[in-house]
């Protein structure tokens, strides 16, 4: 008869409450248990006294009888110094992306890197040639908002002109049909 110290869930939907129990390893999670050692309420604050209630003496007794705590309970018991802190495992390899996906991502990264690599190569000589002019260009940029107000009005005047080529293109399509 293998014994486990584990959590037995209670409470309402989306409002869990757990009992810390000693039960046979093959019994159902919320089924029959041998002894209740305490409770765990994850809904209260971490520093609240009712978050974890545990009878430490009984827990020591059952551990001495060979009861094995589950990973979650072992974490709780390690805070009281009853057991060594459990080692947390890494994520399983199954969750890693497949070979084809890795190849597609590598190809996409190369395609994106190629245009980006060409653009800085063209812009780099201009930046190197005028490092002293760069601060001078920034100063007029600060004054530019006052100048931009009339500039915004100008595109409005150009908007009807932009519509006329669009009308020309529709008439060309009509002519072709």
Give a description of the structure:
The chain has 177 residues and is an alpha+beta fold. Among the domains are: 3-80, Ribosomal protein S16 (S16 Ribosomal Protein, Chain: A, 2-Layer Sandwich), CATH 3.30.1320.10; 96-125. The protein starts with a strand and ends with a helix. A five-stranded mixed beta sheet has the order 4-3-2-1-5. The radius of gyration is 35 Å and the shape is elongated. Helices cover 53% and strands 18% of the residues. The chain has helices at 56-64, 71-80, 99-129, 133-176; strands at 3-12, 15-24, 35-40, 52-54, 68-69.
> What overall form do the CA principal axes indicate?
elongated
Assign the CATH topology of the domain at 3-80.
Answer: S16 Ribosomal Protein, Chain: A
Gross CATH architecture of the domain at 3-80: 2-Layer Sandwich
Report how far the terminal alpha carbons are from each other.
Answer: 88 Å
Q: Helix and strand succession? A: EEEEHEHHH
Q: What is the spatial order of strands in the main beta sheet?
A: 4-3-2-1-5
CATH superfamily of the domain at 3-80: Ribosomal protein S16
Number of helices: 4
Count of DSSP strands: 5
Give the biggest sheet.
5 strands, mixed
What oligomeric arrangement do these chains adopt? single chain
Low-confidence stretches: none
Provide the β-strand percentage band.
Answer: 15-25%
CA-atom Rg in angstroms:
35 Å
Please give the CATH class of the domain at 3-80: Alpha Beta
